[in-house]
Amino acid sequence: MSARPASVGSFLRQAPPDRLPEVVAEHLRTWFPVAGTEVLLSDLTLSSLWPVLEPETPPGSALEQRCFGSQQPVTDAALRRVLLPLATWGDRIGVLRVDLTEAPGHELVTELTGVADELALALRAADKDTDRYRQIVRRQRLTMAAELQWDLLPGRSLTGERFRLAGQLEPAYAMYGDHYDWAVTDDRLTLTVLNGQGDGIEAALLTTVAVNAMRNARRSGANIVEQAELASDAIYSRHGGTSHVATLLLEIDLSGGTVEAVDAGSPRALIAHEGDIRPVTLEQQLPLGMFGDSRYETQKFQLESGDRLLVVSDGVHAAAPGGKAAYGDSALLTALRRTRLQPPTEAVGTVIRALRDYHAGDDQEDDAVIVCLDWLRGTA
């Protein structure tokens, strides 16, 4: 056999966006001792993995889920199988399953990991140019509101040298205006959790205006006060004060842990550290869009190394199904304590599952957002 190409990346860049799994499968068959390949993508609820190459076959097993959750390669020597996480900048996409004709050695697994990394990057880039992968990950039809909000999300997780970040939005297929956004530039991480007033398409459109107004300001170099004020003006000019967006807007200094905040509504923040959980007390200002020419001020609080910052929408902390006490009164803290040893990507799912259990079969009356940030350390 001739020398193996250094990377599959050049082949993926030349391929049509909807044929990336086939390109990787052919590359592996040609250059590696491979008997079979499957690409599995996570569904919108992050609860199951679905095959792309053979979509009629069953979803991924517990072994694939273990790979997806741990974000580490998993080998099954008996089956001569290697499972590799597909992720870009910490945003989990799915799993690459490779069946080999020989036992998986360390060097081979390392090479296959490089192929998985190239595929994950290509899948993320191709997502806007083909519907194939989105058709796999949605297991039922989305409402129009949900379609708008999924397109608006930045991703489901993000990692950097000093932080790990994850968010989850529920219910996945029908939403009512809750949302989150984030962006990292240099040592600054901007994080927003929002709740557009109302439900259905009107709430989603309201949130879309707010998010894009804040992005427009942020990308022009504006600080979080200016971002909030531009979004408030945009909403007021459209609705004249009849609709508003509750927002918590944070800018985190990743080198020192200082957090500047604009609290304009119902999302709430908590800090967990070594089992202790405390609320972040901020002075609440008016929601975006209630009045013309609204002005906002920042408040500050400090993260310590190892702190976990959690932000939840009112669909989490204020949920009171069947006349129960609000979820945020005590059940939320119980759920958060269970996440102490979990990474943010798993912690958000734990809280959302506990919220579902709290509803005990009743439909959620509001959508729910939870965002989890681990600040790992300051500068050395």
Task: Outline the structure in words.
This is Serine/threonine-protein phosphatase. Pfam families: SpoIIE (PF07228). The protein has 380 residues and is an alpha+beta fold. It contains eleven helices and 16 strands. The strands form three sheets. The chain has a six-stranded antiparallel beta sheet with strand order 6-7-16-15-12-13. A hairpin with a 3-residue loop joins strand 6 and strand 7 (163-170). Helix 6 (144-152) packs parallel to helix 7 (200-219), helix 7 (200-219) packs across helix 8 and helix 10 packs antiparallel against helix 11 (344-359). The longest helix has 21 residues, at 106-126. The radius of gyration is 22 Å and the shape is globular. The mean pLDDT is 92.
